[in-house]
Amino acid sequence: MARRKPKPYVEEDPLIEWLAWLMDESIRIGRWSVGLDGFVGLIPGIGDMAGAAVSALIIARAMQSGISKSAVLRMVINVGLDSLVGAVPLFGDLFDFAFKSNSYNLKIYREALRSEREPLRDWLFVGFVLLILLAIVLLPLIGFIYLFKLLVVHIA
């Protein structure tokens, strides 16, 4: 299949713009702006899933516009981070108000749509995240093997 590239003069999707604003910046509190994502995230069990579902809709619409796969992966990582940390009690709720993944994703979408975004930068970020995830998996496994060897030596 031929690789899809963004069309040269594609208009930005108003639904993506509105959803990102609604979820991350629609409520002004003094000099800060927060969105529904933080408040919905306070609902135990379903709050973070509902926020992730709206974010997935933003990503799906961005994919339909033909932006690069590296930009889409970067957007998915932002939503994954928001959902993962947001699920942690108390700290995650505060994080939901502070980390505006939908606004970041809107910026990525706009830059990719206008061909202002360098895919190499996104691929490097994705690679970095994969290395961190690999370390998170391998380090405990290496520690477990080391402890097992120590136990075998002391038991034998």
Give a short overview:
With 156 residues, the chain is mainly alpha-helical. 71% of the residues lie in helices and 4% in strands.
How would you characterize this protein structure?
It is a single chain. This protein has helices at 14-24, 36-40, 47-64, 69-86, 91-98, 101-113, 119-155; strands at 27-29, 32-34. By secondary structure, the chain is mainly α. It folds into two domains: 14-117; 119-156. Helix 1 (14-24) packs antiparallel against helix 3, helix 1 runs antiparallel to helix 6 (101-113) and helix 4 runs antiparallel to helix 5 (91-98). The mean pLDDT is 86.
Topology summary:
Blueprint (H helix, E strand, L loop, with lengths): L13 H11 L2 E3 L2 E3 L1 H5 L6 H18 L4 H18 L4 H8 L2 H13 L5 H37 L1
Antiparallel strand pairs: 1-2
Helix pairs in contact: 1-3, 1-6, 3-4, 3-6, 4-5, 4-6, 4-7
How many helix segments? 7
Major β-sheet profile: 2 strands, antiparallel
- The total number of structural domains is 2
How far do the termini sit from each other? 60 Å
Spatial order of the strands forming the largest sheet: 1-2
- Which structural class best describes the helix and strand composition? mainly alpha
* Number of strand segments: 2
Rg is 20 Å
Order of helices and strands: HEEHHHHHH
| Percentage of residues in DSSP E strands | under 5%
Mean pLDDT: 86
- Contiguous uncertain segments of 5+ residues: none
- The percentage helix is over 70%
Instruction: Categorize the overall geometry.
Output: flat
